[in-house]
Amino acid sequence: MKFVVLMAETDHYQRWAELSDDERAAAFAAFEKFDAAVAERGEVLGGEGLADPRESRTLAPGRRDDRPVTDGPYAETAEQLGGFYLVDLPDMETAVETARLLPEAFLIEVRPVVSG
Amino acid sequence: MTELEDAWREEWGRLLALLVAQFRRLDLAEDGLGDAFATAAERWRRDGTPDNPPAWLLTAARRRIYDRLRSEAIARHKLPLLQVDAALTEEARTVMADAGEAVVDERLRLVLLCAHPSLAPEHAAALTLRLVLGVSTADIARLFLVPTATMAARLTRARKALADQRFEVPSGRELEERVATVADVAYLAFTSGYAPGSGDLLLRAEQAGEAIRLVRVLRSVLPLGFAGAADLDALLALMLIQHSRRDARLQDGRLVLLPDQDRSRWRHDEIAEALALLTPLAAAPSTPYLLQALIAAEHAIAPTAAATDWPRIASWYAELERLTDSPVVRLNRAVAVAEADGPDAGLRLLEGLELPGHRLPAARAELLARAGRTDEAAAAYELAIGLCANDVERTHLEERRRLV
User: Fold this and answer.
1) What pLDDT, in 10s, does the model give residues B227-269?
2) Which of A5, A6, A12, A16 best tests the B interface by mutation, with the highest count of B CBs <10 A?
3) Among A16, A73, B73, B214, which one has the highest count of C-beta atoms within 10 angstroms of its own C-beta?
4) Packed helices B288-301 and B268-278: angle between N→C axes, nearest 10 degrees
């Protein structure tokens, strides 16, 4: 089964910039552990870190030319989405178990991909 | 936005070197700093220039780089790292550059890295302009007369070739060799600026100016008492004198050769600086740069072309030829000897000389004409005209042939 693993954190970008080098190194180590754990049980199909949501443009619903475009993300929440993985794993339980390895400060959503 | 331009000119190389020491990657450091300057262009205009521009830029660049590193960790990109002494990385990491603290100057390491023996000289020259002086890729492409995409690809290859090399200042003999390479790279960038017929002369003067700035930076960051310092002074003097003629070199869009230049249009302050650099080198051992600088200085101090001290110039060329064994030097020496002792003496020096291109037959033609050997002169002009690829120079040669 395929899953998207979404990683969010309150004020993620500000906090990331203020981390100490050791804390950043710990986060990198967590990503590597997650990678290795997924690779043992399935496959990492992809993953990307996202730029600061202030760099986003959001298109509101509407017909083509009528869509209003605004600066920023679609949901102004305290939690900022910072990156995601696309993984192939046997089941949701395994996906949740491996996601536990990701950096401790992150809020994580594991969501199945419909096509499986 | 002059504060930003000043910061770019003054701080780019310094900040880049510091980021390279901390993050051990040229690409990250360069992109991060480039982004920081781009953000500054927007923010400083809106909010005013910060109290400490370099500290602001350093913080913004680091922030960018931290984001990139996180993204690369997730995308599982593993890239090679430069070899940097751990203490240096630690030191670079802790520099905050706020409260007026001076930024540690790691530019010497950066300059020496760009002169790494694994790079071809012209690639080293381009990379040095980009990394040390912060010249944009588009401007470097313009200066080297290639499309921007070509130059971008060339710079990327050069960065990759250096990705896992040592970011360090070697000692002793190796340092001297590396600095000599930087000097050659700077002179290559400088002379490609003044190669006749290679594009817009104003633009080329700009490139020559950047090459001079590189030598100035290099002199300022080398350790005190560095063994090769005298040769760098000589090189700087040579460049300054050649550069001081830039306004006189061009008249109505045409190239004006040295004897015909209006000497009042030379930059005499630059000549004075060059002569001051050369004065303490009177007893220094001869090197190719020193001899070329002395020759240039001799032209620079002659009040008129006719007052040039040709015997002295000829003797310096003789010494330069002994050092370099170069046919081009031999040709120049022959011209100087002809001025000092007459065309026959010059022609004797050209006998048996082999040199591709039009310059040798053109010089022979000129000396034959002066010696009154008109048939031979005409034939030599024909040969030179056939070999000359440059329109301005060919027109000049055709005029000369008509006068024979």
Assistant:
1) 889 999 999 999 999 999 988 987 876 778 899 999 999 999 9
2) A16
3) B214
4) 130
